[in-house]
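Exercise 7b. Backbone tokens:
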């Protein structure tokens, strides 16, 4: 014989024996408490690359080969394009020949200076002869140093015919084609690095002081987990038109799924607020309606509609309306729903 306080309830294909209202008291619940949460302001921001540059020509020449195109990835030091180097090699050969001549004349002047110095020490020649030998040696040394500098300059100019990537990244634009003649200062290719990114946004004047004090921000990327900012850079002046301040939000290196030009949401901490929190698993969602199962002091279960806010840390959500401090909320909505149904049948 089944006790009058027990009811058989069919759930799916399994039978569960529940007590009403005793079964409700076996449900695991949590007590609603007030929590101190950061007060946040959400603003729109745009992703930009920290490293973005246009490589320009540093010598004259004709483009002989282009090894990469737009959207190609390059490593640091990769050869992007090559210019014709006939003129630069000729200048280097001339500079090296002048260096050999200057080195020979310097060696000759040094030997002569040593010879004259030995005779002068024996006081066989005048002081003026010694001074002339010293001046000739100094002049030869100066010519040698000038020739060495000319060789270094010619080598550097020759190296400029080989345009390499200053850092690893992706080419965004190519400004020249094979066969085109270029001159110093002319843009060749543009590129960006996806390893170092940041978000640029405009903070209204009324929030800038709080943002400056707290120095905390998160970046929301679609439905993925928020990305914590590594630092903020606040510009010390406001825009004349909007009276807003430009702020740069530094992102961790290697953040996946981000590309320059994308729009994201930036969440700045601007203060603190008191909010009720409930575990996210305790909230039952039916379309646009959110509800929880609340247990009163007598162990009776009630389905209560609530208005939820933003998600909070630790798998909780904010409750803006529908609950009071101290109320008990069932952690398992499925079991609570079964217990509520058994409770209603027992009350018939």
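Sequence design result:
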């Amino acid at each position: 014989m089944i006790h009058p306080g027990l009811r058989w309830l069919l759930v799916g294909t399994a039978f569960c024996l529940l007590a009403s209202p005793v079964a409700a008291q076996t449900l695991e619940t949590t007590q609603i408490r007030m929590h101190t949460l950061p007060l946040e302001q959400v603003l729109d921001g745009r992703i930009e690359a920290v490293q973005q540059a246009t490589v320009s020509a540093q010598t004259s020449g004709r483009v002989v080969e282009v090894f990469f195109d737009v959207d190609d990835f390059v490593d640091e030091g990769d050869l992007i394009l090559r210019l014709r180097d006939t003129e630069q090699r000729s200048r280097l050969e001339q500079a090296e020949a002048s260096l050999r001549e200057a080195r020979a004349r310097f060696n000759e002047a040094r030997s002569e200076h040593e010879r004259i110095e030995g005779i002068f020490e024996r006081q066989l020649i005048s002081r003026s002869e010694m001074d002339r030998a010293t001046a000739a040696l100094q002049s030869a040394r100066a010519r040698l140093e000038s020739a060495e500098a000319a060789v270094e300059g010619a080598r550097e100019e020759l190296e400029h015919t080989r345009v390499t990537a200053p850092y690893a990244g992706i080419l965004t634009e190519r400004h020249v084609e094979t066969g085109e003649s270029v001159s110093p200062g002319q843009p060749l290719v543009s590129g960006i690095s996806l390893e170092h990114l940041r978000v640029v946004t405009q903070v209204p004047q009324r929030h800038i002081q709080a943002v400056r004090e707290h120095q905390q921000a998160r970046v929301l990327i679609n439905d993925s987990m928020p990305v914590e900012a590594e630092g903020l850079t606040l510009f010390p002046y406001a825009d004349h038109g909007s009276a807003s301040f430009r702020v740069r939000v530094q992102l961790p290196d290697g953040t996946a799924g981000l590309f320059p030009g994308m729009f994201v949401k930036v969440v700045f901490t601007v203060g603190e607020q008191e909010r009720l929190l409930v575990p996210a698993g305790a909230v039952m969602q039916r379309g646009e309606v959110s509800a929880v199962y609340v247990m009163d002091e007598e162990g009776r279960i009630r389905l209560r509609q609530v208005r939820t806010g933003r998600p909070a840390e630790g798998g909780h959500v904010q409750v803006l309306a529908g609950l009071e401090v101290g109320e008990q909320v069932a952690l398992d909505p499925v079991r609570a729903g079964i217990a509520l149904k058994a409770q209603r049948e027992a009350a018939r």
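Instructor comment: Confidence is low (pLDDT under 50) at residues 1-22. The first helix runs from residue 86 to 121.
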